[in-house]
Amino acid sequence: MDQITQVGLIGFGTMGTGIAVVLAASGRSVVVVDTDQERLDRGRAAVESLCDGALRDSSAAEREAVLSRIVATIDLAQVASADLVIEAVTEDFDIKKNVLSSVAGVIGSNVPIASATSAQSITDLAAGLPNPGRIAGLHFFNPAPRHPVVEVIRGLETHEDVVDSLVTFVSTLDKTEAIVVNDSPGFLVTSMLFPYLNDVIQALDDELASAEDLDLALKLGLGYKVGPLEMLDAAGLDVHLQGTSALYAATGDTRYAPPPLLRRMVAAGHLGAKTGHGFRINEPRKDNA
Ligand SMILES: NC(=O)c1ccc[n+]([C@@H]2O[C@H](COP(=O)([O-])OP(=O)(O)OC[C@H]3O[C@@H](n4cnc5c(N)ncnc54)[C@H](O)[C@@H]3O)[C@@H](O)[C@H]2O)c1
Predict the structure, then answer these.
(1) Is 117 in the pocket of ligand 1 (CB under 6 A)?
(2) pLDDT tens-digit profile of 259-284?
(3) Alpha-carbon span 89 to 100, nearest angstrom
(4) CA–CA distance, 41 with 37 (Å, rounded to integer)
(5) What is the mean pLDDT of residues 106-127?
(6) HSE (side-chain half, CA atoms, 13 Å) at 113
(7) Ligand 1: residue whose CA is nearest its atom 9
């Protein structure tokens, strides 16, 4: 793991696309795997738009070079020669466990595997896999090209040299800082963020103020760059529901209990930016057009 030049990335959704851009911009070749061609096409379009923002000061040739380093496929075997594999699939324990097991079946037994999970235990994900000591967490933030910090999560079994190599790896990404955090529900940032987001959703349901005013007050009053409801729309309400439910199940701490309004929004298919309907986004419905 001295030199990580090729990275396998599993999952080409919100996080996978951002992580792919950050890795390719650092000169790495990235093979991204998702489940079907439609998702690969959507991922490619998202990558192009992220590149437009992240590489706006670069030449067209540099932008093309970054894009050319990202290859998307539905064939998991294409990550076989990767120096590192990052799993960024749906926030569901069983799906992740299956993906990690399949990845372990196609790569070398000492190749490190990192999960981008926000809410699952790295120790639980690693349990039962061959060589669990090479499994760690790499918790990027959304969108990855705009957040130059990554939590490196040390599971109970993670080897210290794997943690050290991942810290070195993160430090080679554009101006990005690595913070080492022990495996604990929600790690560092998420464990503090989710109770705040849940409180704001409940305040909206209680009609304390409008969604717009809640965001405005918290942004300007606290000096945050993004309002909490805008943040939820960008992250995906379904992703937050899965994450906060997992933390609630892991801790029994009611600060993580999913607020009823969040459940209702997800049940109605209002998932934020990805569906055009969320707390702050309300695109006209196609069926009413
Ligand atoms: N969205 C956020 O703000 C955010 C922030 C930090 C971390 N995360 C974490 O990143 C991970 C991914 O989240 P996301 O928001 O990108 O989710 P997403 O739903 O946008 O994307 C997940 C992708 O995984 C793919 N996938 C599912 N099963 C697969 C399989 N077997 N093989 C290959 N691909 C498969 C899906 O098709 C989808 O494209 C989660 O663990 C989440 O907790 C998300």
Answers:
(1) yes
(2) 999 999 999 999 999 999 999 999 87
(3) 10
(4) 6
(5) 96
(6) 32
(7) 117
Single pTM value for the model: 0.90
Same domain, 154 and 14: yes
Closest by Cα among 37, 114, 29 to 78: 29
Q: Which residues contact 32 (CB under 8 A, 6 or more apart)?
A: 9, 10, 11, 12, 16, 20, 40, 43, 70, 71, 72, 73
Residue 147 is classified by DSSP as: -
Q: For position 212, which CATH number holds?
A: 1.10.1040.50
Q: Please state the domain count of the chain.
A: 2
- 289 C-alpha vs ligand 1 centroid, how far in Å? 31
Give tens-digit pLDDT for 126-183.
999 999 999 999 999 989 999 999 999 999 999 999 999 999 999 999 889 999 999 9
Same domain, 61 and 160: yes
Identify whether residues 160 and 206 lie together within a single domain. no
How many angstroms does the Cα of residue 11 sit away from the middle of ligand 1?
A: 6
Query: End of a domain among 155, 182, 209?
Result: 182
CATH number at residue 19: 3.40.50.720
- Do 130 and 239 sit in the same domain of this protein? no
Query: pLDDT above 70 covers what percent of the chain?
Result: 98
Check if 235 has its Cβ closer than 6 Å to any atom of ligand 1: yes
Structural domain that includes position 12: 6-182
Residue where a domain stops, chosen among 182, 207, 240:
182
Query: How many residues are there in the chain?
Result: 289
Query: Is the shortest distance between the CB of 39 and ligand 1 below 6 Å?
Result: yes
98 CA → ligand 1 middle, Å: 14
pLDDT tens string 243-262: 999 999 999 999 999 999 99
> Stretch 43-58: mean pLDDT, rounded?
92
| 200 lies in some domain | yes
